[in-house]
């Protein structure tokens, strides 16, 4: 049973790290919103899904690549990748801001309870999914192969592909920039202030609506970047792809300690590796089951997550 895991350990590890970084960026969308509002943004999975379509539309409709086109090279490749990443982040970021305005702001200003906001978030999530289902006729959408998946090197018998390296390095860089933004920028300090004590932050002159909208925007940008990396590696999306990836990313956020940015990082990487290892041992049909088992175990034995103590102090 463990023969595949032993024989392909390093290949699986590299693939798990790449998948884990995608989970890290998606889980930031959950973590950022929960850190400020103490609410789960259930529409974040659909924000990810819309981000994947932003990447596909850019390469297919703007740069006119098809399934039979030759992969791009040189400066053209860099232009297509950077533009696709930007468009995916833009689409997801704007979708996240739309969700905040429609599903959260009006209810928050009316002083409604958390249950009403939760139902509103689920409703906008279903609406976003159904809109994309109608636009795509419920069909899966393949992405043109813009980036040739060449093997760069071999590490301990594992082939290291270009798309995997780009995903790991770029996702880690985006996470680092976002963490620095939260810790060092003026808006980041305002976000942390609202997370710690909303009333005290308002008394100190913090614009609550601006902070919350920025929080949704930043989380949406990170989730959109995850959509770009997902398409780069897997070259496939669908109107309901957000459910599977969103559930896994939510589990990663809970595993690390939802509301904790550093916890999202370690939770995403841990879940990515665990999911790949479990798939190698038990079969790919167990991927979703593995995620669900991890979620249940964390909620039963350590509901605050691995870094839950940080939620009580910084709550960001």
From TrEMBL:
| Residues making up the signal peptide according to the UniProt record | none
Q: Which Gene3D superfamilies match?
A: ABC transporter involved in vitamin B12 uptake, BtuC
Q: Name one GO molecular function term.
A: L-valine transmembrane transporter activity
Q: How does it sit in the membrane?
A: Multi-pass membrane protein
Check the record and name the Pfam families matching this protein: BPD_transp_2 (PF02653)
What are the GO BP annotations of this UniProt entry?
Answer: D-alanine transmembrane transport; L-alanine transport; L-isoleucine import across plasma membrane
The protein's location, in the record's own words, is:
Cell membrane
The record's listing under InterPro entries reads:
ABC_BtuC-like (IPR037294), ABC_transp_permease (IPR001851), BCAA_transport_permease (IPR052157)
User: What keywords sit in the KW lines?
Assistant: Amino-acid transport, Cell inner membrane, Cell membrane, Membrane, Transmembrane, Transmembrane helix, Transport
Query: What broad class describes the main subcellular location of this protein?
Result: membrane
Q: Where are the transmembrane segments?
A: 12-35, 47-65, 77-103, 155-178, 211-233, 239-258
A single Gene Ontology CC annotation of this entry is: plasma membrane
Q: Which family does it belong to?
A: Belongs to the binding-protein-dependent transport system permease family. LivHM subfamily.
Question: What protein does this entry describe?
Answer: Branched-chain amino acid transport system permease protein
Source organism of this protein record: Candidatus Planktophila vernalis
UniProt lineage: Bacteria, Bacillati, Actinomycetota, Actinomycetes, Candidatus Nanopelagicales
């Amino acid at each position: 049973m463990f023969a595949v895991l032993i024989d392909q350990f390093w290949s699986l590890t590299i693939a798990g790290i790449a998948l884990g970084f995608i989970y890290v960026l998606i889980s930031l969308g959950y973590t950022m919103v929960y850190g400020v509002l103490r609410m789960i943004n259930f529409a974040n999975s659909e924000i990810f899904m819309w981000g994947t379509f932003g990447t596909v539309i850019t390469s297919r409709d703007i740069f006119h690549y098809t399934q039979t086109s030759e992969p791009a090279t040189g400066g053209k490749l860099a232009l297509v990748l950077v533009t696709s990443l930007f468009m995916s982040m833009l689409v997801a970021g704007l979708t996240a801001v739309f969700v905040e305005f429609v599903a959260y702001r009006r209810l928050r200003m009316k002083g409604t309870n958390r249950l009403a906001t939760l139902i509103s978030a689920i409703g906008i999530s279903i609406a976003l999914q159904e809109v994309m289902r109608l636009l795509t006729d419920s069909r899966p959408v393949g992405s043109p192969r813009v980036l040739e998946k060449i093997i760069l090197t071999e590490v301990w018998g594992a082939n290291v592909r270009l798309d995997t390296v780009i995903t790991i390095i770029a996702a880690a860089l985006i996470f680092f920039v976002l963490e620095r933004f939260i810790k060092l920028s003026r808006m980041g300090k305002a976000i942390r202030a609202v997370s710690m004590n909303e009333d005290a932050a308002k008394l100190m002159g913090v614009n609550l609506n601006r902070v919350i909208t920025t929080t949704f925007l930043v989380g949406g940008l990170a989730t959109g970047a995850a959509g770009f990396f997902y398409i780069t590696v897997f070259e496939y999306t669908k109107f309901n792809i957000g459910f599977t990836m969103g559930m896994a990313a939510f589990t990663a956020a809970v595993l690390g300690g939802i509301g904790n940015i550093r916890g999202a990082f370690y939770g995403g990487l841990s879940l990515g590796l665990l999911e790949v290892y479990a798939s190698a041992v038990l079969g790919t049909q167990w991927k979703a089951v593995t995620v669900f088992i991890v979620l249940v175990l964390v909620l039963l034995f350590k509901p605050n997550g691995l870094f839950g103590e940080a939620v009580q102090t910084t709550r960001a």
